[in-house]
Amino acid sequence: GEALYNIPQMPVDICVADSQGGIGYMIERMLRNVLHKHNLHREIVTLVTLTLVDRNDPAFGNPTKRIGKICTREEAERLSKEKGWIFKEEKKAGNGFRRVVPSPEPLKIMNSGVVEYMARQGTIVIAAGGGGVPVYIDEKGDVRPAEVVIDKDLASSLLATSIRAGEFYILTDVPYVYINYQKPDEQPVEFLDLADTEKYLAKGMFGEGNMAPKIRACLNFIRQGGRKAVITEAFKLEDKRYGTKITMHYED
Fold first, then answer.
1. Which of 20, 66, 128, 189 counts the highest number of beta carbons within 10 A?
2. Mean of all residue pLDDT scores within the chain
3. Which pLDDT score, from 0 to 100, does residue 128 have?
């Protein structure tokens, strides 16, 4: 848009807010249709959600989250000079480069009180999409936008903890967590306690690029008092035979 129509590049916080609204609307519309099909009556709301980060988080010194389109080396060098953006080579795309931004830890879901209030009234709340709109508090106490991307699993876990949820579910494209995923000795796991989950994570047995962030989110939830965290395939959610259940201790 900027090159063709001279439309200014939107900052990350606006892009996340736009995505939350647009994708949230699509989820809400389909949920309304499903509820209508089953003659169920529930209120549904899509909430643009702000997530607070710390400007002094070490992640600001090591941007790793890739965003935006793949650029040529020449485009990356020009944008880096014009806008101060940082680019890293996208090895899977040959000689392309993509912009990278920090991915700091989420500190607080700023709308969690509203989410909890509505949820406890029976409303289905669609919130924290994309990890939440990233913001920080400046020296004057004002809310300011942050050019970062927040991990969606960590943000969802924080929201679940903040609203005192008893259970936390992450829906993905596999029915279980696998130890040594996509290796000859891969093994599905149905039950894990906190200690074993931490041990396997430390040994790198979950795969850093896919399942490990979800495992960290579940661990955070359990450490903060959550009863159970479940990772499962979306289409298997209703089938209790599937899904990896993580709890503080193994159940008898």
1. 128
2. 93
3. 96
Taking the CB of residue 126, how many other CB atoms lie within 10 A of it?
A: 19
In sign, the C-alpha dihedral spanning 20, 21, 23, 27 is positive
Q: Which CATH architecture has domain 167-251?
A: 3-Layer(aba) Sandwich (3.40)
With CA atoms as reference, report the closest residue to 173 among 214, 129, 139. 214
Query: In this structure, which topology does domain 10-62+103-165 adopt according to CATH?
Result: Carbamate kinase (3.40.1160)
For residues 12 and 68, the answer to whether their CB atoms sit within 8 Å is no
Does this model's pTM top 0.85?
yes
Query: Using 50, 70 and 90 to split pLDDT, how confident is the model at 180?
Result: confident
Contacts of 110 by beta carbon, 8 Å cutoff, 6+ apart: 49, 50, 51, 52, 135, 143
Residues 129-148: b if buried by 16+ CB within 10 A, e if exposed: bbbbbbbbbeeeeeeebbbb
Quick one: pLDDT at residue 95?
74
Domain ranges of the chain: 10-62+103-165, 67-101, 167-251
Residue among 194, 191, 186, 236 nearest 210 (CA): 186
pLDDT at 182 exceeding the cut of 90: no
